[in-house]
């Protein structure tokens, strides 16, 4: 019997095909999951062979390291059970489980609560002696504060918080994890990582992608729910949190929550100076002429959903008071460009006239490549004592490094029971609390337009302090 079983609910769906199976396939190829049995569960009454064919096809399309030889080894790990999300149907899984079993809810979000409850009613939340049971839940966790709280309630009828692994795939990204290592493992960073030395922080996640085939989901969600509430809030709290007293997932998550709790609430009165929304109109990216959001298939002609959202957040604690954190993300922007950029304050004192020291920036770049850049001023070679800006760049990975996708990282952690890179409920809850006034205000009015291929709506400028400007993504 395999020592661990992963049951994927929603095994015939898109997430399983595009992300989960390719990740499991690679981990298996590297010898990291030999003891794992993977049981697909979905509504289709497929045989195991039919499921294998389905997964085989997916891997041929989506697994970059697919080989027929490896497929022949991998397929032996697969199994399948068909059924609805009812306890009686789910109990057919009983004989397939191992002492250690994970249930992965790769389902449409409205089914998370039902699935967790049905698994609980089937008796699967209770671990056998010496074993364990875990539940992996995809994002989004709720669509607002009340629905997130209701979902928690539904899950906690059967499952303990410690058993629930809430996924935010950004936490599996190398740069996100590097934020923790780089900040806390280098002596020179911590003493200057505060309002005395830092002037502003900009967190940008710009995509050229449009709404793709996700109109039904995206038109209800919008950029604030899709990107800011989860991914960017995580980058925000990891950038701002205090150093840990102990490397422990609970201590880490306490520190992240502390940042959110110390963030000044956005109020109905100041939404306009703290939040901006935009929607793309027709435009051009490179040579490609692209339609506006409202002309995309499946989007209502008069849709007021935002495809760009920007926030100004301020943390009212000793470390950060007076430092604006600007967060923004949008679809159909000029380039795929993403970074966490920290600007330091100007240097005091006198310098030779020709030096013109610019502000230093420390940049953790996620896209187009993962790298770290430090913008400094150095002497310009020559007879004059003049300065010029220089970028000290560290590519994040070298050619010898083996890189892993976010899902490869998170599945490995979930199997080994490491909760460090998963969300605790209070993180999700605080993020919703901070955004609710914005979501409420945006029920009225409409987003500002921006052309596809631009850097977002001009109105994003109004979030900035005098003297600050958005970094270019072009
Ligand atoms: C997802 C959002 O969570 O993250 C998408 O739903 C977005 O809209 C994606 O495109 C971005 O993440 P990545 O890792 O694909 O760049």
TrEMBL record:
It is an enzyme of class 1 (oxidoreductase). The keyword NAD does not apply. It comes from the Bacteria. Keywords: Carbohydrate metabolism, Glucose metabolism, NADP, Oxidoreductase. The active site is at 231 (proton acceptor). Residues 7-178 form the Glucose-6-phosphate dehydrogenase NAD-binding domain. Pathway: Carbohydrate degradation; pentose phosphate pathway; D-ribulose 5-phosphate from D-glucose 6-phosphate (oxidative stage): step 1/3. One of its GO terms (cellular component) is cytosol. Substrate binds at residues 169, 173, 207, 226, 331. NADP(+) binds at residues 84-85, 139. Pfam families: G6PD_C, G6PD_N. Residues 180-470 form the Glucose-6-phosphate dehydrogenase C-terminal domain. GO terms for molecular function: glucose-6-phosphate dehydrogenase activity; NADP binding. Coiled coil: none annotated. It catalyses: D-glucose 6-phosphate + NADP(+) = 6-phospho-D-glucono-1,5-lactone + NADPH + H(+). Its EC number is 1.1.1.49. GO terms for biological process: glucose metabolic process; pentose-phosphate shunt, oxidative branch. Belongs to the glucose-6-phosphate dehydrogenase family. PANTHER family: GLUCOSE-6-PHOSPHATE 1-DEHYDROGENASE, GLUCOSE-6-PHOSPHATE 1-DEHYDROGENASE G6PD. Catalyzes the oxidation of glucose 6-phosphate to 6-phosphogluconolactone. This is Glucose-6-phosphate 1-dehydrogenase. It comes from Dyella choica. The gene is zwf.
């Amino acid at each position: 019997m395999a020592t661990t079983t992963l049951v994927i609910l929603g095994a015939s769906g898109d997430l399983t095909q595009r992300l989960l199976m390719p990740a499991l396939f690679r981990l298996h190829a590297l010898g990291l999951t030999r003891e794992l049995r993977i049981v697909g569960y979905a509504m289709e009454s497929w045989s195991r062979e039919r499921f294998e064919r389905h997964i085989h096809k997916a891997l041929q399309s989506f697994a970059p390291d697919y080989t027929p030889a490896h497929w022949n080894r991998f397929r032996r790990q697969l199994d399948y059970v068909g059924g609805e999300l009812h306890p009686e149907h789910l109990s057919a899984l009983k004989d397939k489980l191992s002492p250690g079993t994970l249930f992965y809810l790769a389902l449409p979000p409205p089914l998370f609560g039902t699935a967790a409850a049905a698994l609980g009613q089937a008796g699967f939340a209770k671990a056998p002696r010496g074993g364990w049971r875990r539940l992996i839940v995809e994002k989004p966790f709720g669509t607002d504060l009340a629905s997130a709280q209701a979902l928690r309630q539904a899950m906690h009828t059967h499952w303990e918080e410690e058993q629930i692994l809430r996924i935010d795939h950004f936490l599996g990204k190398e740069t996100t994890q590097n934020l923790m290592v780089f900040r806390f493992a280098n002596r020179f960073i911590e003493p200057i990582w505060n309002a005395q030395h830092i002037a502003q922080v900009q967190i940008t996640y710009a995509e050229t992608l449009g709404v793709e085939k996700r109109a039904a989901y995206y038109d209800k969600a919008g950029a604030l729910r899709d990107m800011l509430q989860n991914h960017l809030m995580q980058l925000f709290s990891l950038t701002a949190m205090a150093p840990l007293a102990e490397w422990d997932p609970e201590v880490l998550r306490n520190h992240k929550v502390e940042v959110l709790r110390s963030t000044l609430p956005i109020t109905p009165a100041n939404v306009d100076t703290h939040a901006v929304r935009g929607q793309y109109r027709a435009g051009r990216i490179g040579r490609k002429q692209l339609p506006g959001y409202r002309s995309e298939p499946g989007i209502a002609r008069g849709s007021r959903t935002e495809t760009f959202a920007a926030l100004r957040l301020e943390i009212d604690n000793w470390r950060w008071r007076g430092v604006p954190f600007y967060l923004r993300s949008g679809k159909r922007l000029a380039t795929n460009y993403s970074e966490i950029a920290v600007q330091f304050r100007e240097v005091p004192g006198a310098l030779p006239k020709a030096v013109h020291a610019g502000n230093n920036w420390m940049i953790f770049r996620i896209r187009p490549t993962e790298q770290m850049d430090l913008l400094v001023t150095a002497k310009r070679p020559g007879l004059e004592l003049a300065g010029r800006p220089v970028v000290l760049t560290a590519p994040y990975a070298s050619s010898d490094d083996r890189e892993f996708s976010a899902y490869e990282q998170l599945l490995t952690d979930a199997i080994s029971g490491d909760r460090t890179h998963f969300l605790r409920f209070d993180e999700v809850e605080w993020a919703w609390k901070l955004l609710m006034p914005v979501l409420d205000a945006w029920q009225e009015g409409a987003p500002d337009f921006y052309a596809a291929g631009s850097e977002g709506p001009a109105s994003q400028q109004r979030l900035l302090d005098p003297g600050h400007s958005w970094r270019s993504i072009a």
